[in-house]
Amino acid sequence: GPTLEGAMRQALDAGGQVLLLLNRRGYANLVACPDRKCGWSLRCDHCDAGMVVHRADALASRMEFVRCHHCGTEQRLPRRCPSCSRNTTVFGLGTQRVEEEVARLFPQLRADQMARVDSASMQGSGALHQMLVRFGSGELRLLTGTQMIAKGLDFPSVVLVGVVNADAALHLPDFRASERTCQLVMQVAGRSGRGPLGGRVVVQTSSPDHPAVRAAATHDYEAFVRTELPIREALGYPPFGHVVRIVVRSVDDAAARHQAGLIAERLRAAAGGPPTSGTPSNVAPAAVRVLGPAPAPIARLRDRFRWHVQLIGPDDAELRRIVREAIDGFATPDDVAWIVDVDPVEML
Q1: CB 147 within 8 A of CB 121
Q2: Is the model more confident about 130 or about 57?
Q3: Which strands sit side by side in the sheet containing 289-301, from one edge to the other?
Q4: Global pTM?
């Protein structure tokens, strides 16, 4: 946006360094047909996920390919829609796209004064360290990166931190999405203004009034907590309760769904049984809920269909008892696998 561009121009003219954070890897995040009636978009053949465009060399080569960030499958970028033959369009932003845009807007920056840090470009254990040494010495004027650059870096000459598309992960189907967005923006904002030159943070977002974005921009985590905690409490999510997530996967979608359904039934039966406190067996423990079965947010991963069941309740020991009782002696077909994730870090 114009605000971020103006701030970058000011920072670079003053001889300062600029750090740009993008909450996404790659060149762009969606390859699709521009005709809405057609509606085709490029998906991974092995996962229920879009493929991300990459370039062999963002600034030199025009050789483009797409990669799935879940299973690693790669193919050439299709130029035409396989459904209606129109030229495909690349939507969205990635670190390479941001780097190209910066090179276009700031021609005074040489290619060797800019660098990109993401897990695709940082191959090898010493690559990140080497890049940060170059940035620390002032050789690099501008660093673009993913969350790899958000934590623990201390560069006194950084006078501007720009967060591009701050809300990219805000609307993921995960109860911690807001919390993660707030933490990430606050972490990277803390990289600015550590030296005598002072600093500025510009947050680019399409959800400026979202509590997570507002709190991060004003560096007021307590304000975010005040809005988030009542929501968590109403839903029984941590820190007010515990979650056990069971993910069932199979090459056969119907088999995975069937097995997840059986597990959900057994969990509901066990939840209605006698809890550890010795309450009568016909009384279900307070506020224990079984959600599902439902397709996982990424419904297919590495050629496996995934269904999940969630168990939510206030007492960790009680949830563990319910799960143990439900899976005791539970037979699983050879073509189905499942895992139990207690208090999962992410829900995708």
Answers
A1: no
A2: 130
A3: 289-301, 304-313, 242-250, 336-342
A4: 0.72
